[in-house]
């Protein structure tokens, strides 16, 4: 079958639909860290239909085309890539969208596609394994490995030398409400286990506060007596979520400071020994589910960092979503082929 100047089988041409879809979900994942599950259902259904179509073509050809060019790659795609995606999701290595993306790719690309443009056929580097979804996965892993190197080079060029320069970069504290990722700082210094920024947004929305308000009255809000009587919905922490902020925090600021809080204290009364500083325990007990696995201690440490009015910038990890390497792995796979095996075989 020929489409304009591209020659390929019918199933392979229809598989190109995945390219703009994955470009869109990669961009959306960068901007919002949210991808609707409804995206994957049509792709999976299309993949299943194309798998049956290709099986019929290979069965009619018989011989090597059926046994080695279809059955073996399809078995690897469905019997290896699908379990890998599920296990990585189960153990927390992948997000739900990442796992669903790989499941859809396993159905869409069980075998290597072939696109002839003039005298050149893409991908140019195939492998004996023959499973294109496996190639996309290995390409994605290699691309993901290069991201920390790129971050380190970027930080080194800007003179930012730190133990976490391979996983993040510094941003202004007032930009945190519109950022995704994780804090790489605690009151004790840089750390890989800082507060998830989605959890920070959930907490602020639950209290009906902005980060600016929290920083301007840090000592006041550290007192759990200032928690709103009727907390607001915390949302899921997404930057684009619709937020209602009519909690009791405004009432708590009226009149005299709460007992044991000195409104003029330069350190915001951070040394006061409250039973539940910042109301971290109360927040996590009140919300349904969890705030991305955040513990009360992690929340308190993160709030102590971002609420300090003297702190202007903090290190964060952008937590590059795996759908970006998956998209890039798909693009590289379609034009070049397998980055890992194609260069050594």
From TrEMBL:
Membrane topology: Multi-pass membrane protein
Keyword Cell membrane in record: yes
Residue ranges crossing the lipid bilayer per the database entry: 39-58, 70-89, 101-125, 131-153, 322-344
Record's GO cellular component terms: plasma membrane
Gene3D superfamilies associated with the record: 1.20.120.1220
Pfam family, one: Peptidase_A24
Ranges of compositional bias, category Acidic residues: 257-269
Main subcellular location: membrane
All copies of domain Prepilin type IV endopeptidase peptidase, residue ranges: 17-139
GO MF entry, a single one: aspartic-type endopeptidase activity
Key words of the record: Cell membrane, Cell projection, Cilium, Flagellum, Membrane, Transmembrane, Transmembrane helix
Chain positions covered by the region annotation Disordered: 221-269
Keyword GTP-binding assigned: no
Protein location: Cell membrane
Protein name stated in the entry: Preflagellin peptidase FlaK
Organism in which the protein naturally occurs: Natronobacterium haloterrestre
């Amino acid at each position: 079958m020929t489409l304009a100047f591209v020659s390929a089988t019918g199933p392979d041409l229809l598989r190109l639909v995945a390219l703009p879809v994955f470009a869109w979900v990669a961009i959306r994942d960068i901007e919002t860290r949210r991808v609707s599950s409804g995206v994957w259902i049509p792709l999976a259904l299309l993949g299943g239909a194309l798998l049956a179509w290709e099986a019929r073509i290979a069965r009619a050809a018989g011989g090597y085309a059926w046994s080695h060019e279809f059955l073996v790659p399809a078995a690897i795609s469905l019997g290896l890539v699908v379990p890998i995606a599920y296990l990585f999701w189960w153990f927390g290595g992948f997000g739900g969208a990442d796992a669903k993306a790989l499941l859809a790719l396993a159905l869409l690309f069980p075998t290597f596609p072939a696109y002839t443009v003039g005298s050149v056929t893409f991908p140019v580097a195939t492998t004996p394994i023959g499973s294109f979804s496996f190639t996309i996965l290995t390409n994605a892993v290699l691309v993901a490995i290069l991201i920390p190197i790129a971050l380190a080079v970027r930080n080194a060029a800007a003179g930012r030398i730190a133990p976490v320069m391979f996983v993040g970069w510094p941003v202004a504290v007032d930009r945190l409400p519109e950022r995704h990722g994780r804090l790489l700082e605690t009151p004790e210094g840089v750390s890989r286990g800082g507060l998830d920024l989605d959890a920070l947004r959930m907490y602020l929305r639950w209290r009906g506060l902005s980060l600016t308000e929290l920083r301007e009255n840090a000592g006041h809000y550290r007192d759990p007596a200032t928690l709103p009587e009727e907390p607001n919905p915390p949302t899921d922490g997404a930057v684009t979520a619709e937020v209602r902020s009519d909690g009791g925090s405004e009432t708590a600021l009226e009149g005299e400071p709460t007992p044991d809080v000195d409104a003029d204290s330069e350190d915001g009364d951070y040394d006061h020994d409250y039973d539940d500083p910042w109301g971290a325990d109360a927040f996590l007990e009140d919300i349904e589910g969890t705030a991305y696995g955040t513990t009360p201690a992690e929340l308190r440490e993160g709030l102590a960092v971002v609420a300090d009015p003297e702190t202007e910038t903090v290190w964060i990890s952008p937590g590059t979503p795996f759908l970006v390497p998956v998209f890039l792995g798909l693009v590289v796979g379609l034009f070049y082929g397998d980055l890992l095996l194609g260069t050594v075989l």
